[in-house]
UniProtKB/TrEMBL annotation:
Stored InterPro entries: RNA_pol_sigma-70-like, RNA_pol_sigma-70_dom, RNA_pol_sigma70_r2, RNA_pol_sigma70_r4_t2, RNA_pol_sigma_r2, RNA_pol_sigma_r3/r4-like, WH-like_DNA-bd_sf
Domain RNA polymerase sigma-70 region stretches: 27-91
UniProt keyword list: DNA-binding, Sigma factor, Transcription, Transcription regulation
Domain of life: Bacteria
Organism (species): Deinococcus arenicola
Keyword Zinc-finger assigned: no
Domain RNA polymerase sigma factor 70 region 4 type: start-end pairs: 121-173
Keyword Aminoacyl-tRNA synthetase in record: no
Sequence similarity: Belongs to the sigma-70 factor family. ECF subfamily.
Name of this chain's protein: Sigma-70 family RNA polymerase sigma factor
Family matches, as Pfam families: Sigma70_r2 (PF04542), Sigma70_r4_2 (PF08281)
NCBIfam families: sigma70-ECF
Length: 184
């Protein structure tokens, strides 16, 4: 990369990454956390790391064919969803019970850490209780921050279908959490 390209776009990095490991590393650093969040929501935290690895292997292999007709993030999300679906179909990605996920709270506050871990487990259970199409749409919206049109492009669904899936998914999550006595 040139010094004038201090903040290259994803498309610029993708084109450079075909032959430049530093550009590919920049793409990975820029998108790995988001890919991991989406994978964890779709396949569970225990399988997310393997899915992320599969995603970036597929991205690296596919960069030569990426023409930039769609946004890089759209292409990346589609690859992520494909890897998640593959992981859910196969047995190559062991899952870790949700109760084994690490806490977010500081270790010096074990009560708060325990409450946070419990809430995270319940939220993950609620998300996994949704049908796959709703979980996918809600995850892309709430975890990846995509707008409805981007979700439609990534999933290949009509815009109205995306809106419906998200609304039904949110309602189901609200009902599930209310049943578990968690105020959504």
């Amino acid at each position: 990369m040139h010094t004038r390209d201090l903040h290259p776009t994803d498309l610029q990095l993708a084109r450079l990454a075909v032959r430049d490991d530093a550009a590919f590393e920049a793409l990975v650093n820029r998108h790995a956390a988001g890919v991991h969040r989406l994978a964890a929501a779709m396949v569970g935290p225990g399988a997310a790391d393997d899915v992320v690895q599969d995603v970036f292997i597929a991205v690296h292999r596919g960069l030569k064919g990426f023409r930039g007709e769609a946004a890089f993030s759209t292409w990346l999300h589609r690859i992520t969803l494909n890897a998640c679906h593959k992981a859910l179909r196969g047995k190559g990605h062991p899952t870790v019970p949700l109760s084994d996920t690490p806490g977010l709270a500081a270790p010096h506050d074990p009560v708060h850490a325990g409450e946070q871990a419990d809430l995270r487990v319940r939220l993950a259970q609620a998300l996994h209780s949704l049908p796959a199409d709703q979980r996918e749409a809600v995850s892309l919206r709430e975890l990846s921050g995509l707008d409805y049109a981007e979700i439609a492009e990534v999933t290949g669904a009509e815009l109205g279908t995306v809106k419906s899936r998200i609304n039904r998914g949110r309602a189901a999550l609200r009902a599930y959490l209310t049943k578990m006595e968690i105020t959504p």
